[in-house]
Amino acid sequence: MLTSRIVAGIIPAQVLQYTQDYTAQHLLTDSRKMLHPASSVFFAIKGAFHNGHTYVPVLYAKGVRQFILEDVLYIPEVKSVADLNILFPEANFWQVESSLRALQQLAAYHRSRFSLPVFAITGSNGKTIVKEWLAQLLSPDELVCKSPRSYNSQIGVPLSVWQLNEHHTLGIFEAGISKPAEMEYLRPIIKPTYGIFTNIGSAHNQGFASRQQKIAEKLKLFTEVELLFYCQDHTSIHEAVQAQGLPAFTWSRSQPANLQIISCRVAGGQANITFRFAGEEQGLLLPYADEASIENMMHCLAVLLWRGLPIDEIQHRLNKLLPVAMRLEMKEAINNCYLIDDTYNNDLAGLGIALDLLLHQPRQGKKTLILSDVLQSGLSDEILYRQVADVVKSKKIDRLIGIGATISRHQDKFEQESQFYTDTDEFLNDFKPDNFRNETILVKGARIFQFEQIVAVFQRKVHGTVLEVNLDALVHNLNYYRAKLQPATKIMVMVKAFAYGSGSYEIANILQFHRVDYLAVAYTDEGVHLRENGISLPIMVMNPSPDSFAKIQQYHLEPEIYSLEILQACLAATQNKSQPLNIHIKLDTGMHRLGFTPEDLATVAQILKAAPQLRVVSTFSHLAGADEALHNSFSQEQVKQFREMAAQLEAGLGYPVLKHILNSAGIVRFPEHQLNMVRLGIGLYGVEATGQEQEGLRTVGTLKTTVSQVKEVPAGETVGYSRRGVAATPKKIATIAIGYADGYDRRFGNGVGQVWVNGQLAPIIGNICMDMCMVDVTGLSVHVGDAVEIFGEHRNITQLAQTIGTIPYELLTNVSARVKRIFFAA
Ligand SMILES: *Cc1c(COP(=O)(O)O)cnc(C)c1O
């Protein structure tokens, strides 16, 4: 048995020695992803939003014994070193200056033990796709170790490289940076033999002084490579590479280069290229035709040609090149099931990530995994499937459906309820919808198993209209606002009205995972719904009805108390309860909606003082005009009054409470008034209400529908109800599957609204009907089944709202319940 000890100032060799002694094989940076406590080392990293030291006690309780941290006194409840032996008698603590740097040093040390060739990929776009494609294209010859998904950060890179083992023959890792100096830490971890610089975006990047600086910083990844692949048409990259004299393999669309494209003809979704390489002219058919895909494929082609692959073999491999799904989708399915569609690829690292997501779904009901053979692990089947069985068990999967000859052979390793099939067809032939009910199902398969067929049978027939919700964008926005907060400021997120139309528990769940402090809903039933779906965060209810206090207590919700009447109702309902109820006191400072006025305060404090069963957690007020600069002095006045009233209330209560007043716009406009907490609303969903910092946010919701019919309408005819759409000339009309019952406002009718279809804008013609409307697509290429965007990525919702004299809040919350929400991460 170990005794608790502190080892100061580690060096990687020492840690590595130690990781061998104690078979510590797993590097853990996120307490939620713990899988193998006994063989994990936890790195307590202090990030912008979390302090890893906080999770040491929880992890210790779960069996983790090895901790790398910055100061043992950061651990909750540790007041002195002597406490360690009492609280954590079996733990080892390695105290270092920076846990992140220690993680990186350890990964670099691990890397230095292997002499295989390694590709490093950086650039503004396409890193993940180039990595995945290059791995696909080289996999007939090599056993590739690569970053899982887009693990390219200061933490992601070391975790990726840590996967290297003696069976691998090639490494492909991506690296991304967001500010200067970061690349210098990543280079020794990847220690690339070859580099690929995909491209450089023109967008001004917050972390860098200029585009030149961004290029120079990224190039630091490649200072020691034997060869750097890039497109020399990116002039600024080319100049920087030449200035540094790095050995290069270049390709170009327009100038002499190692690989020069002479012509490129795009037709039928393919690109027919001729090119000159090594003095010879040759041709290839690339299986994708969009600009970005062509660029990504050219980087790969450069590598294949340089490696000396014969042209017919290259064509053969290109033909099999599969699209890289960048998103992991969650979809509603038959019998109240929920599907996580991850038919992206199936390696061990990816399996862990997807299972994590499944584990963190708070829905009640079974968790089922449909899993194909796991490919490209470099391990023997025996060891591999033992590891797979371990992961599946530790992630608390209730039922496993294994598909594939190899996984079937190893079925005795799996302990949970399970069925096995040798291939996808056998499963589909045996498929009975009744066998699946109220479950969350992860569908995870290597591409050759074609699990999209399985997804299709599970997917309920959906009405053509969907609201796609990008959860990664949501988290980006959350972090954008968090970055503005003082370290001690808490964050409450408003998930009222179905999370501004975006979903309900799905959004709450992501927020819970990302550890916001509080949620707020408008009505009690919204809070009950979240609780019933496994949300355990504290939830404030802003408008509790007097008859809902029993439910409030039953579900541990926390009411907003805004008037003496509601306070009395709350008192009456809690009179004989021993369990105290947390409440929040709303103050009216000028919004004149809900809240106590200054005159009420003395009475409120008096009543509360005599009611120990009510515990005031916070007091707050709401700004009436934070979004407009015009109202700045009014807002300042509100804050001033709030501070005074809150102080008076606290004095009356005799104990301190949290104070908060800023909504999304307030966070941007009045950083000096964050107080103890802020309340984030619309900003999370991608709309920056002041309009000053919209570029900092990402679009979360995209409302899409499909074309049901396309027809030619002769001149002189009319379109739709009341004959309002007049075809003065012959027109091509597309009927799309969205109407006012879906939340598409009638005011968008008759040319006011425009939808985005196949890259072009098309105006609404005629009145909008209940379930459909018509679009003028004269002269455009539009076909039945084409996707149509109402708002989202290409149609800015704020501008759209302005055209009908409303605000984005209304458009978001109007999307009706019958529109399916599809959640994805990208
Ligand atoms: C809705 C709401 C918010 C959030 O407002 P946004 O403008 O969406 O940021 C904050 N506080 C209260 C009391 C609210 O009702």
UniProtKB/TrEMBL annotation:
Keywords: Isomerase, Ligase, Pyridoxal phosphate
Chain ranges of the Alanine racemase C-terminal domain: 700-824
CDD domains the UniProt entry points to: PLPDE_III_AR
EC number: 5.1.1.1
Keyword Ligase: yes
Entry-linked InterPro entries: Ala_racemase, Ala_racemase/Decarboxylase_C, Ala_racemase_C, Ala_racemase_N, Mur-like_cat_sf, Mur_ligase_C_dom_sf, Mur_ligase_cen, MurE/MurF_N
Active site: 496 (proton acceptor), 721 (proton acceptor)
EC top class named in words: isomerase
The protein's annotated pathway: Amino-acid biosynthesis; D-alanine biosynthesis; D-alanine from L-alanine: step 1/1
Modification N6-(pyridoxal phosphate)lysine, positions: 496
Domain of life: Bacteria
Key word Ligase present: yes
The protein's required cofactors: pyridoxal 5'-phosphate
An example Gene Ontology molecular-function term: ATP binding
Reactions mediated catalytically: L-alanine = D-alanine
CC per GO annotation: cytosol
Family: Belongs to the alanine racemase family.
Annotated protein name in UniProt: Alanine racemase
Species name: Adhaeribacter rhizoryzae
